[in-house]
Amino acid sequence: MSDETPIDFSSVLASAVHDMKNSLCMLIQSIDQLSQSSSHQSKEQAEELARLHYEASRLNTNLMQLLSLYRAEKHQLPMTIEEHYIGDLIEEMIAKNEIYIEKRGLTIEIDNDEALAWYLDMDLVGNMLNDILINAMRYSKDTIVISTEIINDELHIHIQDNGDGYPQEMIDLIDLPMQDLNFDTGRTGLGLFFARMIAKAHKNQNKEGRIMLENGGKLGGSVFTLILP
C-alpha cells in the first residue's frame, strides 16, 4: 500500500461534484416538466414542487461554486470576458427561478436600460447573481428589485428585497479570507467568498470588481451590489 500514489482527494471531490451537478440539472428539468404538465395540482402540491425546485436550484448553485473554487485553486478557472446585454443576464436569472417566483407570488421589479451592455463572464457572473437572487427570494416578504446604474464608469448591479435585511455577522464576513471561514456555523460565508472571487476576477486598467452588502435601499431590506469596472 505504501508504494501506491496518494489519492488527490480534491480532484476526486471535484469529479464527484461535477457528476452530482449533472444529476441535479436533470432533477430540476423533471421538476419543471411536472410543474408545467400537471393542471390538477392542489395548492399544497404546487407549493411543494416550488420548494423542491428552490432547494434543488440552491444545491446546484452551491456545487457550481465548489467546482469554480477548485478550478481557481488549481489556476484553471476559465474566464471568457465578452460584451453582453445586462438585460439578457437578468432575464436568464428570472427564467431559472420562474416556478418559485410564481408559486410564492413574488413581485420582481426590473430597473435596467435595455441598451446597457458590459464586458463580463456571462456564466460566472450569472451563476453568482443567481445565488444572490435565490437568497433574496427566500428571505423577501413579497418584492425584489433588480436594478443597474453606471457610476464613475463602473457597472453597479443591485439586488434588493423587502425582507429583514442581512444580519450583522453576515455583513462582517464580506472581507474575511477563505482560511478564516467558519464551517461549523449555518452561515459559512462561502457564497460571499465565491461572489467576491468572481467580482475581483473582472479587471479593467487599474480597477477590479467588488461586492457590497448593506441594509435599507428602496425596500428597506437587504441590498447586494456587484460592481464591475
UniProtKB/TrEMBL annotation:
Q: Name one GO molecular function term.
A: kinase activity
Q: What keywords were assigned to this record?
A: Kinase, Phosphoprotein, Transferase
Query: Where does the Histidine kinase domain start and stop, copy by copy?
Result: 15-229
Family annotation (InterPro entries): HATPase_C_sf, HATPase_dom, His_kinase_dom, HisK_dim/P_sf, Sig_transdc_His_kin-like_C
Q: Which reaction does it catalyse?
A: ATP + protein L-histidine = ADP + protein N-phospho-L-histidine
- Which segment of the chain is annotated as a signal peptide? none
Tell me which SMART domains the record gives. Answer: HATPase_c
Q: Name one Pfam family in it.
A: HATPase_c
Q: What is its EC number?
A: 2.7.13.3
Q: Which Gene3D superfamilies match?
A: 1.10.287.130, Histidine kinase-like ATPase, C-terminal domain
Going by the record, the broad EC class of this enzyme is: transferase
**Designated name of the protein:** histidine kinase
Organism in which the protein naturally occurs: Catenovulum sediminis
